[in-house]
């Protein structure tokens, strides 16, 4: 049985994610990002990063208001610490993963046949493993799209060149993110919920999405060194 304190914590954490994401989105309406895709990245990241994302946004992401005549808060890249640029690059990837995982999990929940098509009851006894394939496909497609809309305008590439560079920049980062996310979700499912609490972790529960918030933080951790390498080799744009 799920203890009441865990259920309450899950609800509060999810509420914090939505409230902070909404606040950042409204704030960006007055203070739009110079790179338009970041107008999506910050609120999406807030869904799982909550207060950590809010601090990062206020320190390194918030832009001056449209009517503000003061000097821009958007400091030149050379003034932004490299570790911060890496963190922004990782969250840029993670935001695509977040949307992909949200769509995939709810699709598999609403249409269980999708998991069957991907190997549930044939290749995998556990439905979660089949859904992970769908998670990865959705996350990869959306993550590459996010990267495409960053690289193409910055490098002034053709559509084909932009797609190729987006895949090169995001494939390793996205895979590392998903590995971290999968590892924690497996731990949460088999050790915490089935092992300690004696109940499965179901998609249509606040506890599932609370665990996903934590899993995304693990995805950030596992993708961070990969993004460091990609940016140091100029394979991925510095954010």
What this model shows, in words?
- Helices cover 75% and strands 0% of the residues.
- The protein is an all-alpha fold.
- The protein has one domain (4-232).
- It is globular, with a radius of gyration of 19 Å.
- The termini are far apart.
- Residues 69-74 have low confidence and may be disordered.
Number of DSSP E strands: 0
Query: Helix segment count?
Result: 7
Percent helix, as a range, is over 70%
N-to-C span: 44 Å
Radius of gyration: 19 Å
Total domain units: 1
Q: What form results from the Cα inertia axes?
A: globular
- Beta content: under 5%
Overall pLDDT metric: 90
Helix/strand-derived category reads: mainly alpha
Secondary-structure element series = HHHHHHH
The largest sheet is:
none
- Low-confidence stretches at least 5 residues in length (pLDDT < 50)? 69-74
Can you tag this structure with a few keywords?
single chain, 239 residues, mainly alpha, 75% helix, 0% strand, globular
């Amino acid at each position: 049985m799920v203890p009441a304190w865990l259920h309450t914590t899950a609800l509060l954490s999810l509420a914090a994610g939505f409230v902070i994401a909404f606040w950042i989105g409204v704030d960006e309406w007055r203070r739009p990002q110079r790179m338009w895709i970041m107008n999506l990245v910050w609120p999406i990241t807030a869904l799982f990063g909550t207060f950590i994302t809010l601090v990062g946004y206020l320190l390194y992401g918030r832009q001056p208001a449209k009517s503000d005549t003061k000097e821009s808060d958007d400091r030149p890249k050379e003034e932004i610490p490299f570790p911060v640029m890496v963190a922004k690059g990782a969250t840029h990837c993670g935001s695509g993963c977040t949307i992909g995982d949200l769509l995939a999990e709810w699709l598999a929940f609403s249409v269980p046949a999708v998991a069957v098509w991907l190997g549930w009851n044939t290749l995998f006894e556990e439905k979660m493993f089949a859904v992970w394939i769908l998670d990865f496909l959705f996350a990869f497609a959306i993550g590459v799209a996010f990267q495409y809309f960053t690289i193409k305008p910055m490098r002034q590439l053709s559509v084909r060149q932009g797609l190729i560079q987006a895949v090169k920049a995001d494939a390793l980062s996205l895979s590392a993110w998903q590995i971290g996310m999968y590892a924690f979700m497996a731990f949460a499912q088999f050790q915490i919920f089935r092992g300690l609490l004696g109940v499965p972790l179901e998609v249509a529960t606040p506890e599932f999405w609370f665990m996903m918030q934590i899993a995304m933080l693990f995805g950030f951790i596992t993708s961070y060194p990969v993004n460091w390498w990609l940016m140091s080799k100029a394979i991925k744009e510095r954010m």
